[in-house]
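Researcher: Go.
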Amino acid sequence: MSISLPAVLQHLKSMEGSGLVRSEKKGRVRTVRLDAKTLAFAESWIAERRSEWEAQLDRFETYVQTLKKNGED
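Model: Structure:
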């Protein structure tokens, strides 16, 4: 899969705006560095959301199974 340079720059700009990366330009060279602390925070937040959604899906599955079981009786 290929991606255009303008698309890459747009993504980097968004990531820089969110604090995930920092960039520095010297002459014609731009260096981009990942901010590990911000990434760790984002990973933690995503993990919490994932846990919440999995719990909701588990409860929904239990509910559906109950409906199926009651429909068979």
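Model: Residues 12 and 21 are 8 Å apart (CA to CA).
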